[in-house]
């Protein structure tokens, strides 16, 4: 019975019935007659009042009502129905079989399917009766119910009463003294609770030894819970039936029997305090609400039956209700977005509103979790791993000891909740997590208002040079960590800590950077970033919250600005914990003053036009090229003038193998030393390459007595003193020459991280290094560049060049260049090559194509369990392929209609008498044959493509039908010693049923993007080849010595059969008649491209009219030479973050040499061979 606020219930007797007057103050405001029925007058037993759902949660009526709530959810809640799978899920490894509740047993499921319940409870200390290696066999025969603690006995009773057979309990279903079993089962926690039909939550007990099925007498009115007043009367009353009535198991509405509640009547209304508007009716998790492990169990389950101290509550994705209406109303509670509970939640686009919303929910969850305690200090991360794994699937960012790599700078700025200092628990004598993670402290944390910025844009004041964590167990990527490294390139501002007088609050005062102070920075004292710090207003003060005072040295503190926020800066304050680095952090907020640049800093700046146009032609939109930061070369570059002025076009050139740096692996050693110097200078570099550049220089004849001078001033380096500088006539023209620079160490730096002043000093280091090896004719240049990973029914057979489907089926054929993705993701890559082991067929691609960034970078070997399945074309690629087919059909339909009309017109002209002046029959008849041929070819191709589209839509639309295999081996991505080759490889075991039309290792040379003539021309010709590549004939025509052997013939079917591997020696040298080594690649993004091989498997784009050699989406492609030998496996590229044809482009493509990679695959797969044949696999 609900009573409004401020009212009390006063009894009055009238005609033998109770009349309840609602009294407010001293006035009787209203009178209502209620029939108060004594308990014995009900149809049921005298104890009916004690058996109501609100009084005894374990009674058959209460559990019957709970079962009705579950059935109503399963049949009538649309959100819950959409979440549920059409079939029963896989059972956990072990469950408790409750078919005989008096004799339960441990059941090893063998991964069979079925419904099961799960239990969430508090251990309250170690359990005596738990599954161990010694008793697991005995428990499988049966468990003595009397030996089990009360909470587990109650859970078995509830499971059986709800009509379920299986129950999952951690203490019994995980072998507690087996680290291997714990590791395996903890990795499945997010599946166990998410797939449970219902989770039983024992919220009203603080220990497993207590029973949660206890009598729950209705609570007295608010304020009288601990008082018994003289004259109080407690009487039952009949509760009204629920509207609508609950569903029966058959799906029909049923009439409920009257339910009995309790009404309190007192003769002392003056002693009753005002009542709240409604009974506090939100769920009460009791002790579970304070325990770390229990949070994920509560959040991850789609349905929960909560046994609390005041009510029995049912919660699902659609609603929360008190079973039997034992309490009135419900309140809002924390829930995970339903997206996270999907089997395979879709990824949110980084930086999108969906990503930011999910990241905000993650922060709320972490804030709630941080207030909970774990019995074992080292469990802080692992106890929430299941929830973090679900967030990781949507955010698709690497998890770093509690924070995300994509938003690390923003996420580091957490603060303590409240004024009390936090503790930093130690595990085995060291912190349990890095100081920059909230997991390092014990106590509530939050992200303050004003620090909600998530994605760190280019205006960030600090940059992450390195951030790595080492996991205790690589199978638990969201679990415990054992070591960590965080290196920031940032400005350090020396500051002092001064208490304001308020407990827990302190001010940070930044010291002014006077001349003496700057000198100390330059000499290495408090060195940070590039040795300089921002000029700071002398009395600038920033507010900071200090979370822990025990482990800092107040006299040595530095403020580190991280992000600008309007006119404020946001950052952290660090103090050295020991000699190894900074170990303590807090947050900082203060006014931001613009950073100044001195005249000295501007001395080496590159003019703006030169910065953006110097490398024009190399990459990017319309070939604009990367931004130049600094160069040591002395060639003049001026902005052109005049009405027809245009900037020169630059091309990349290979470094010849006879160059000193290309001999005896000298470049390996020079590059390693250059990297060390770059690190010492704090240069945030992305790549170090050895290249040459070339461009056309024009010299026009001048009339009159004027000197015949070169409008493009001659380069002082292009003289006899520099033997590596080339200049020769361009295509035999007397007015144009091709100028080629000396070898250049070309360093890519991350955008907006390196000044010309820094690059100048760094280049001095590298040039001095070269002098030590007696090398004086090499230049150094810096540009902004990022290195990126360029990441059913049977397949179709490849077709020849004259088949109408030649340009259509490549994406779904068994020839190499097949676009692939991991099931459930949209990251595109390509199958590189096939190999066989006995009768099994395998394929190789790059690891980063099939593994997400947030997954641990550890060796993967498939043994058993869920597979990492591989599909032909991810969702986006398949959608694009369907759109391509539809566009092709529309174009062909137009051609058919046009050619048909043309045939009709010619036929009519032939049927009519030939008019004077009109076309003769000799002209019309060949034209008719030509038009009929065009019509026939277009009609044939239209019919073929239309049938192919119908076939693809019918057989390939479901992504499950496009599964072609699963990953079996993937070593970690690493730079392998001694040559620092990129180890980025993944082996897929293929489903042979999808490869009936197997073509072996064959590369399709021609598709919808090219033709035979263009391909041959690109293989034989280049605008910027030097004198060793060209021979000039008397008639001025150009002949090219090329890598393609003289006897090379274009394959008749357009498929280049691949055999053999280009050796290390062959890669570093070329035959006398093959001074250029051209290589070929076919990828989903750039299709067929031709490049030239340079030092250390760096490939340069070779033609002005060609796409970049690779773009994102081409990872995993095989790079081969003109003889069909394997050269490398494409892994990534360096280029500007610009969009060319919809994809960031690369100036240089990197690959892992096949001569190094294949022996490692052979060592892992005994009997592996690349000679896989071209016959059908039966």
Helix-strand layout with pairing:
Blueprint: E1 8-14, E2 17-24, E3 27-33, H1 60-76, H2 78-83, E4 94-97, E5 105-108, E6 116-120, H3 136-141, H4 150-161, E7 166-168, H5 170-173, H6 179-186, H7 189-195, E8 198-202, E9 233-239, E10 259-265, H8 292-300, E11 304-307, E12 312-315, E13 320-322, H9 353-370, H10 385-395, E14 399-400, E15 403-404, H11 408-411, E16 415-416, E17 426-427, E18 430-431, E19 445-446, E20 463-471, E21 481-489, E22 493-499, E23 505-510, H12 515-523, E24 541-545, E25 557-565, E26 568-578, E27 581-591, H13 599-602, H14 608-613, E28 628-631, E29 650-653, H15 666-680, E30 685-698, E31 726-729, E32 736-740, E33 744-749, H16 756-771, E34 779-784, E35 786-789, E36 819-822, E37 829-830, E38 833-837, E39 840-845, H17 847-850, E40 860-861, E41 869-872, H18 875-911, H19 921-955, E42 963-970, E43 974-976, E44 981-983, E45 986-990, E46 1002-1004, H20 1012-1020, E47 1030-1032, E48 1038-1040, E49 1055-1057, H21 1064-1068, E50 1078-1083, E51 1087-1093, E52 1098-1101, E53 1118-1121, E54 1126-1135, E55 1139-1140, E56 1143-1144, E57 1148-1153, H22 1154-1164
Helix pairs in contact: 9-10, 15-16, 18-19
List keywords for this structure.
globular, 8-stranded mixed beta sheet, 8-stranded antiparallel beta sheet, alpha+beta, disordered N terminus, 1178 residues
By secondary-structure content and strand pairing, the structural class works out as: alpha+beta
What would the average pLDDT be, to the nearest integer?
A: 71
In total, the number of strands is 57
Beta-strand level of the residues, as a percent range? Answer: 15-25%
Give unreliable regions as ranges.
1-54, 221-231, 273-283, 499-543, 549-555, 578-600, 702-723, 790-806, 1023-1048, 1071-1075, 1138-1144
Terminal-residue CA separation: 75 Å
Give the overall silhouette.
Answer: globular
Query: Helix segment count?
Result: 22
Q: State the strand order across the main sheet.
A: 5-4-7-6-8-11-12-13
Radius of gyration: 38 Å
Helix content: 10-25%
Largest sheet: 8 strands, mixed
Pfam families: HET (PF06985)
Domain Heterokaryon incompatibility: 116-213
Organism: Trametes pubescens
InterPro entries: HET
């Amino acid at each position: 019975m609900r009573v409004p606020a401020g009212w009390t219930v006063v009894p009055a007797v009238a005609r033998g019935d109770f009349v309840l007057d609602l009294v407010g103050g001293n006035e009787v405001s209203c009178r209502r007659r209620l029939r108060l029925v004594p308990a014995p007058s009900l149809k049921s037993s005298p104890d009916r009042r004690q058996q109501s759902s609100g009084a005894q949660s374990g009674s058959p009526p209460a559990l019957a009502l709970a079962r009705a709530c579950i059935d109503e959810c399963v049949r009538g809640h649309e959100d819950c129905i959409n979440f549920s799978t059409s079939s029963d899920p896989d059972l956990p490894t072990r469950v408790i079989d409750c078919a005989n509740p008096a004799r339960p047993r441990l059941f090893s499921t063998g991964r069979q399917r079925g419904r099961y319940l799960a239990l969430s409870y508090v251990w309250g200390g170690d359990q005596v009766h738990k599954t161990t290696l010694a008793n697991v066999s005995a428990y499988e025969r049966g468990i003595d119910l009397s030996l089990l603690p009360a909470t587990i006995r109650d859970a078995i009773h509830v499971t059986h009463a709800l009509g379920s057979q299986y129950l999952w309990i951690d203490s019994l279903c995980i072998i507690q003294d087996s680290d291997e079993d714990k590791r395996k089962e903890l990795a499945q926690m997010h599946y166990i609770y998410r797939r449970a039909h219902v989770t039983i939550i024992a919220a009203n007990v603080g220990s497993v030894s207590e029973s949660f099925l206890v009598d729950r007498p209705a609570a007295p009115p608010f304020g009288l819970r601990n008082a018994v007043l003289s004259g109080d009367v407690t009487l039952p009353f009949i509760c009204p039936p629920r509207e609508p009535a609950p569903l029966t198991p058959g799906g029909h509405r049923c009439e409920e029997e009257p339910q009995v509640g309790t009404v309190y009547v007192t003769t002392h209304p003056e002693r009753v305090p005002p009542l709240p508007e409604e009974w506090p009716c939100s769920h009460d998790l009791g002790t579970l609400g304070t325990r770390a492990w229990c949070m994920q169990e509560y959040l991850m389950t789609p349905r929960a039956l909560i046994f609390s101290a005041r009510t029995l509550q049912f919660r699902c994705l659609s609603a929360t209700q008190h079973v039997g209406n034992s309490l009135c109303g419900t309140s809002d509670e924390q829930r995970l977005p339903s997206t996270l509970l999907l089997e395979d939640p879709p990824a949110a686009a980084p930086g999108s509103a969906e990503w930011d919303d999910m990241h905000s929910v993650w922060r709320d969850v972490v804030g709630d979790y941080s207030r909970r305690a774990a019995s074992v200090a080292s469990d802080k991360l692992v106890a929430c791993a299941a929830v973090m794994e679900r967030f990781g699937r949507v955010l698709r960012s690497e998890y770093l000891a509690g924070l995300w790599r994509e938003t690390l700078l923003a996420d580091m700025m957490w603060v303590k909740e409240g004024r009390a200092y936090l503790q930093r628990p130690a595990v085995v004598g060291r912190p349990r997590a890095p100081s920059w993670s909230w997991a390092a402290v014990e106590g509530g944390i939050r992200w303050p208002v004003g620090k909600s910025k998530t994605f760190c844009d280019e205006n960030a004041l600090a940059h992450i040079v390195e951030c790595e964590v080492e996991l205790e167990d690589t199978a638990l990527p969201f679990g415990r960590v054992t070591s960590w490294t965080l290196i920031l390139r940032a400005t350090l501002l020396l500051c002092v800590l001064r208490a304001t007088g308020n407990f827990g609050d302190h001010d940070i005062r930044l010291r002014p950077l006077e001349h003496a102070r700057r000198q100390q920075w330059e000499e290495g004292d408090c060195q940070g970033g590039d040795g300089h710090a921002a000029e700071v207003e002398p009395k600038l003060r920033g507010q900071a919250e200090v979370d822990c005072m025990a482990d800092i040295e107040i006299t040595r503190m530095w403020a580190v600005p991280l992000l600008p926020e309007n006119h404020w800066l946001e950052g952290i304050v660090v103090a050295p914990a020991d000699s190894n680095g900074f170990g303590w952090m807090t947050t900082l907020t203060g006014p931001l003053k613009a950073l100044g640049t001195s005249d000295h800093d501007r001395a080496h700046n590159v003019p703006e036009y030169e910065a953006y146009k110097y490398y024009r032609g190399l990459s990017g939109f319309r070939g604009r090229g990367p931004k130049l930061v600094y160069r040591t070369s002395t060639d003049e570059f001026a902005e052109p003038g005049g009405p027809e002025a245009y900037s020169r076009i630059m091309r990349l050139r290979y470094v010849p193998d006879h160059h000193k740096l290309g001999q005896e692996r000298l470049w390996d050693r020079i590059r390693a030393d250059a990297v060390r110097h770059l690190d010492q200078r704090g240069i945030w570099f992305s790549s170090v390459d050895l290249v040459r550049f070339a461009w056309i220089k024009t010299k026009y004849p001048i009339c009159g007595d004027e000197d015949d001078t070169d409008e493009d001033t001659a380069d002082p380096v292009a003289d006899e003193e520099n033997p590596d500088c080339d200049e020769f006539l361009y295509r035999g023209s007397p007015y144009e020459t091709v100028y080629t620079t000396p070898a250049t160490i070309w360093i890519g730096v991350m955008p907006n991280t390196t000044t010309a002043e820094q690059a100048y000093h760094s280049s001095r280091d590298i040039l001095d290094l070269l002098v030590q090896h007696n090398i004086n004719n090499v230049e150094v240049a810096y540009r902004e560049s990022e290195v990126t990973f360029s990441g059913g029914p049977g397949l179709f057979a490849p077709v020849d060049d004259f088949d109408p489907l030649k340009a259509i089926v490549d994406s779904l054929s068994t020839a190499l260049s097949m676009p692939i993705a991991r099931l459930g993701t949209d990251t595109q890559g390509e199958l590189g090559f096939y190999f066989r082991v006995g009768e099994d067929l395998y394929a190789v691609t790059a690891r980063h194509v099939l593994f997400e960034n947030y997954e641990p970078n550890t060796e993967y070997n498939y043994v058993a369990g869920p597979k990492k399945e591989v599909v032909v074309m991810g969702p986006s690629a398949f959608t694009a392929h369907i759109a391509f087919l539809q566009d092709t059909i529309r174009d062909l339909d137009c051609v058919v209609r046009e050619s048909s009309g043309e045939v009709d017109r010619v036929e009519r002209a032939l049927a009519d008498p030939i008019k004077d002046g009109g076309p003769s029959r000799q002209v019309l008849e060949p034209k008719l044959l030509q038009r009929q041929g065009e019509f026939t070819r277009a009609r044939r191709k239209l019919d073929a493509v239309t049938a192919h589209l119908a076939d693809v839509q019918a057989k390939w639309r479901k992504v499950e039908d496009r599964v072609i295999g699963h990953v079996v081996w993937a070593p970690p991505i690493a730079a392998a010693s001694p040559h620092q080759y990129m180890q980025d490889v993944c082996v897929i075991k293929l489903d042979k049923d999808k490869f009936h039309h197997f073509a072996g290792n064959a590369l399709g040379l021609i598709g919808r993007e090219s033709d035979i003539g263009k391909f041959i021309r690109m293989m034989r010709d280049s605008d910027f080849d030097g004198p060793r590549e060209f021979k000039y004939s008397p008639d001025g025509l150009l002949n090219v010595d090329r890598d393609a052997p003289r006897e090379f013939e274009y394959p008749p079917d357009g498929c280049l059969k691949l055999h053999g591997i280009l050796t290390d020696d062959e890669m570093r040298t070329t035959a006398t008649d093959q001074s250029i080594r051209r290589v070929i690649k076919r990828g989903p993004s750039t299709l067929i491209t031709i490049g030239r091989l340079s030092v250390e498997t760096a490939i340069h784009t070779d033609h002005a009219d060609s796409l970049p050699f690779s773009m994102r989406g081409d990872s995993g492609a095989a790079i081969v030479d003109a003889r069909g030998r394997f050269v490398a496996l494409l892994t990534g590229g360096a280029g500007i973050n610009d969009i060319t044809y919809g994809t960031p482009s690369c100036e240089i493509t990197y690959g892992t040499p096949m001569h190094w990679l294949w022996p490692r695959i052979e060592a892992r797969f005994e009997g592996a061979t690349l000679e896989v044949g071209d016959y059908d696999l039966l």
